Amino acid sequence: MPLASPLYAGLLALLLIYLGLRVVQARIRHKVSVGDGGERALTKAMRVQANCAEYAPFGVLLLVLAELQGMPVWLVHVFGLMLLAGRVLHAYGFGSTPQIVRLRRWGMYLTLTMIGATAIANIGHAIF
Fold first, then answer.
1. Tens of pLDDT along 48-104?
2. Closest listed residue to residue 12, CA positions, set 85, 72, 103
3. Which whole-number Å values give the CA distances from 98 to 32, 44, 102, 103, 124, in the listed order?
4. Which one in 25, 51, 54, 77 has a CA-CA gap of 20 to 30 Å to 95?
5. Model pTM greater than 0.85?
């Protein structure tokens, strides 16, 4: 039976590509090759992408490890959807002008809850 976690790894990779393309567009628009050139919109686009790159890989790693250790597939989907929804909500809320703080906050709640729960599940499985 195929694993479920690669679905979320692939979707999150596509999200990261999309966010990266937004950085490229902002660089072209503001004619900035390196750094942010003092352009707030470019800084924001860079941070939105970086935040996704900081959290998504670790969440995916924990999801894959939990699945490989026997987590039920329905629970893999629950945690995968939490991570994906969290990253999408955060990116949209943070990337909007003005920010939609409520979406950004819920994105972090979902992401951190998923990472914490799968971390505990992995630790528990490793110990017991």
1. 999 999 999 999 999 999 999 999 999 999 999 999 999 999 999 999 999 999 999
2. 85
3. 22, 11, 12, 12, 42
4. 77
5. yes
The beta-carbon contacts of 101-110 under 8 Å, at least 24 apart in sequence, are 110/82, 110/83, 110/85, 110/86
At 37, which amino acid appears? G
At position 63, the amino acid (one-letter code) is L
Classified as helix, coil or strand, 101 is helix
**pLDDT tens digit sequence for 106-119:** 999 999 999 999 99
Q: Distance between CA 23 and CA 106 in Å, rounded?
A: 23
Q: Burial-class residue 26 by CB neighbours within 10 Å (0-12, 13-18, 19+).
A: buried
Q: Burial, 70: exposed, middle or buried (Cβ in 10 Å; 0-12, 13-18, 19+)?
A: exposed
